[in-house]
Design brief:
single chain, mainly beta, four-stranded antiparallel β-sheet
Length: 114
């Protein structure tokens, strides 16, 4: 059974940093392209960052230079390091397999106060 558990969200002031974690079970984060998404109330879930099976990375324009996606194969965990946070980064953040989404986790809430 595939399970994705996101954590690390918090309330932080603008300019601050957070590191989100996504612990996966039933799916290998090292052989799959993995991604982080975010969603605000009433809006669709948007792609934030992805990491390919060869460790190539891509980012939404809005987070380029501020966010970094990475993974730890031994822990089967994907991370999202978020620096220079802005109020517009406030959202629920989810991780998932990029090319074929599996069951979504509960997400983790990031709130950036200005």
């Amino acid at each position: 059974q595939v399970q994705l558990v996101e954590s690390g969200g918090d309330l932080v002031q603008a300019g601050g940093s957070l590191r989100l974690s996504c612990a996966a079970s039933g799916i290998s984060v090292s052989i799959n392209a993995m991604a982080w998404y975010r969603q605000t109330p009433g809006k669709q879930r948007d792609l934030v960052a992805r990491i390919g099976s060869g460790d190539s990375t891509n980012y939404a324009d809005s987070v380029k230079g501020r966010f970094t996606i990475s993974r730890d194969s031994a822990k089967n965990t994907v991370y999202l390091q978020m620096n220079s946070l802005k109020s517009e980064d406030t959202a629920v953040y989810y991780c998932n397999r990029f090319y074929a989404n599996v069951n979504w986790g509960q997400g983790t809430q990031v709130t950036v106060s200005s």
